[in-house]
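Help wanted!
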Amino acid sequence: MFAPFMAHAWIVATLVALVAGAVGFFVVARRAAFAAHALPLGAFPGAAAAGLLGVNPLLGLTLFAALGVIAITQLQRGERREVASALWLALSLAVGTLLLSLSGQYAQGLYGLLFGEVLGISARQVLGVAILSALALGLLALFARPLLLDSLSGELAAAALGRARRLEWVFLLVLALSTVMALPVVGALLVFSLMVGPASAARALTDRPWRALGGSVVLALLVVWSAIALAYLTDWPVGFFVGLLSGACYVLGRLRGPGAAVQTA
Amino acid sequence: MVLTAGFLDNEPMRIALSVGGGAALVCAVVGVATVMRRQAFAAHALADVSSAGGSAAYLIGVNPLLGFLAMAAAAAGIMEWADVRSARERDLLTGVVLGAGLGLAALLLYFDATVRSVGGAAVTVLFGSMFAIPAGIVPLALAVAAVALLASAIIHRPLLVSTLSADLARAQGIRVRAVALTHSVALALAVALSAMTVGAILSTALLIGPAAAALRLARRPASAVALAALIGLASTWGGTVLAYESYYWTPGRGWPVSFCIVTLIFCAYLAASWVGARAERPQVQHPSGCQGH
Amino acid sequence: MSQAAAALTVAGACVTLGGRPVLREVNFSLTAGEFCGLIGSNGSGKTTLLRAILGFVPLDQGRIELGGQGTLPGGIGYVPQKIELDPGLPLRARDVVALGLDGARLGPALPSRSRAERVEQMLAAVGASEFADRRVGLLSGGQQQRVLVAHALVRRPRLLLLDEPLANLDVRSTAEIVALLRRLSRQSGTAVLLSAHDMNPLLGAMDRVVYLASGAAVAGKADEVVRTEVLSSLYGYHVDVVRVHGRVVVVAAEAREESHAAVERDPVHTAPVP
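Answered by r_m:
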């Protein structure tokens, strides 16, 4: 499983876990699980469109992720947050079905985009993922404190910063970046599981925010590495193991830790 | 555009219109309560998770509707059983159930492709196939629709009070958890039904879209339900006919049904929120009187 | 009207939450048509007492009886604390009141003349007719309060509980709501128990007061309870009841600087009148 052809898979999965673990901390803090699901999944028509036009899929994904950020923030006006995510997701997926049916490469491409193809990652893809990870992590480091304050209370952040509404944009932008980078490699569904499970467990293990963020990253790494190893051994899809292990993280977090106590209070 | 004569003589078309209509009706009714209770994410998660049931049904060769139903009900049961009160915990739990369910779907679809060599299972399960619904499913589908509608009608008032405030409901002697559980079961039925028709990942559109559009316009719960039913039915039937017709004016391929339906729903939502925003504007300025915060 | 039928009897009620005693031996009773203030600072146990009366919180000891028939949900009207009515819900004020009448019934409501009339009367009684057809989540705080009172009273309960209904209301709305509740309780014979951290808006209206401090209570007529000796013995340290410009202020006397506990449990933070 450590053969040379697996090297790219390990590197990319590690990068994705680093970013997803860190972003996941804020996804949990901001109750944005639906957006974290809708943005990656809603970007997949971009890949289909790129396939149809014969351009780089990363371009199509970027376009649709950006459209997702705009659509969700715009639809959120005077509407419930989760309805905005749901509507954007439905619309983009509908467009995706149309594009896939036009391009005629229905089944196989779809499965890969949704559930990921860890094997067969090229060196260029690794480089692209590395650059986008650095960008996402940099943005996150820059805005970590305001984002945390905003998650605690939007009014507090508005009082301190004067313009809290832009934080939602920053947050969704980071989400979109991590999406674009992870989608072709690990699939829309896997990256979402990685954001929610480890972060929810980490939050239950400690009361200190930055330690929870670190814990979330460590758990995400453990989940991804074990998932790849298990997938290699069983030949089953990676996405299955990531979903399973992320769910296990959540259950463990709920069984012990201060988070569980807070919840019953 | 001239409708091709006789599309009603077409058997798959008749099935699509009846099952689709049933799904649209149920989704509209259940969807209004779902959007009001802020359960749009849960509804979407149930739909995605139910795709694991659909995949399993292909694997063992049973009626796919049963697969969707079983998995949606199981996921709804887990979410209600965990009895999470705070909004944050509910969001998280929904996310985790969704992630795990999708992982399971990935595995089962993989088995569909490798063990059973059903290559198109992924497409059918995730995106639905209105024109390929077997006739044998129709009675079961319509029965499921009737049960969900009945359950929603029965708990209509207690559910409204619970949505307004759980404490108010309890003070009135309403069993809040039982009512919430009943609603979740109705939601699971609606999700399974729409997953059959427009596919698992697009059933959210059918559940949330018409309801959200109606809630932008309606002033009373009853009119919201009626309006949502109207929008849902019109979009589903319109979309189905549109997709059918599109075979004649696109080169041979036609547009997917789910695309047509969802696009119509989204247009209805945009129109409704535009009209709703215009109607609301003069109302927002409160007349003087006792002022709150 | 029958003479002094007991609407509520609380006898020796004790409640422990998370190992901490929240109510200790609370005793008082209300008769039909009485208007009673439940006064105490934050954390004194007011909300717990109301929730215990509703049957939401089990008693460790003692008993709570309602109008002789035992605790029965539905027989009590309730207005919870800080309820935030969601502006996204398509409910008019009228619909909320109708739900108070038969919201627990199964099945959709059939159109009924008498039901509509009763809702209309209730809306008029609380002065909400003017905004009866507006979306309830878009109404002001005072207007929402009136709608919730109508929601609670439309079933004609024998007892009405209100948890801090005056918090976040301006001076005029406060006076209007108090006068309204007092009038309605007189007319319908409903006993009203209203919690507040400041007793001043209620002084002229209360028939009776239940004063809570750290879970212990004294009850009686306002001028019997709100006295230096009585409240000092309730708090367990000396407090002064001072009357300034017709307002009552309870101050922990000299203990303010030395005793941290006294300051923390300082009952009423009414600032002197401007």
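OP: Thanks! One thing I noticed: Residues 142 and 170 of chain C are 8 Å apart (CA to CA).
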